[in-house]
Amino acid sequence: MDFTTLRYFVEIAREENMTRAANRLHITQSALSKRLASLEERLDTKLFRRRSFSIELTDEGRRLYERAQELLQLHDKIESEFRDLHEPLGGTLAFGMAEARSVELVAKTVRRLKESAPKLLCRIESGDTALMTMLLEKGILDFGLVVEEPDPRKFHAIELPAKDRWVLILPKDHPLAQKPALTFRDLQGLPLFCSAQGWHGDIDRWSGGRTDELSLESHVTLPTNGAFFVREGLGFLLSFEGLVDTGETSSLTCRPLDPPLTAHSYLVWRRNATVTPIAERFLAVLRELVTQEKTVDDLEKGTKK
Asked: Which pick of 65, 89, 136, 196 has the fewest CB atoms within 10 Å?
């Protein structure tokens, strides 16, 4: 089973149509059909069900699709790492990021690094801590930005200066928008949207383990998706401040929780993994910027005192 055939299979699965897949791959449909037939023969299983105008994966096909994507990502990662060894002006960095304020610091680090490595390329995945750590462990990502304290047995970590404040996103005309902050009692009875990680982690701790007394409407991975449901009057979104537009032109606003609830973020990478030269340079720049931001924060705190 070669990687070219796996790429062809993945493209067919994405397009659900042999003709479109062949056009995207710039090969003839008959050549693509032969590749697929050879793959099914080698695995002794049918990977697709044929329909009138399309095809769909069988259960076995879906299993192979998941594995093929992982294999191809790792294959591409290995190739890029070895290319980077001979590219002093750049390289490739693969990031996995939660939605948090610290993404701004990562972006600032990349911009600073590109001054000396103009050919630097970045690949970015989005998701929660569970997904990011899984991709890190498989070697698909170089770094992960997570909002949950990482396992020191598995990962190196740099705690980033910015903290994220939990807020409730709600319509501007809702009575709770008149309050400066919202308590646990304020949230009781409200249909709530929240990420699974936040609900079972930060929100559960904030509530003293009383989340069963709150009404969870649904878990949402992306705050922007949850905000659409809030606009339609379907509920209220628990999220980090700044991830949803609550400006003057928005119909939504946000209110912090009382007592205040904040989350720390971390830049993590796998222990016992070889760090590429471009990744080492990234870490050096990041550490410099983290030190600078912490110095500024300390000076501001000293001035306030």
From this structure: 89
Taking each continuous run of H as one helix and of E as one strand, the counts in the chain are: 11, 11
pLDDT for 298 equals 63
Q: Which residue has the higher pLDDT, 209 or 79?
A: 209
Cβ atoms of 162 and 286 within 8 Å: the answer is no
| Beta strands 252-256 and 119-126, pairing class | unpaired
Alpha carbon separation from 18 to 24, 85, 210, 238 (Å, rounded) = 10, 38, 52, 43
Give the span between the Cα atoms of 193 and 196, in whole angstroms. 9
Residue range 223-236, pLDDT digits in tens: 999 999 999 999 99
The pair phi, psi for residue 143, each rounded to 5°, is: -140, 155
Give pTM, 2 decimals: 0.72
- pLDDT score for 164: 96
Q: Which CATH superfamily, name and number, covers 163-263?
A: Periplasmic binding protein-like II (3.40.190.10)
Q: 85: helix, coil or strand?
A: coil
Q: What's the rounded mean pLDDT across residues 188-203? A: 95
- Residue 258 DSSP symbol: S
**With respect to CATH, is domain 3-77 assigned 1.25.40.10?**
no
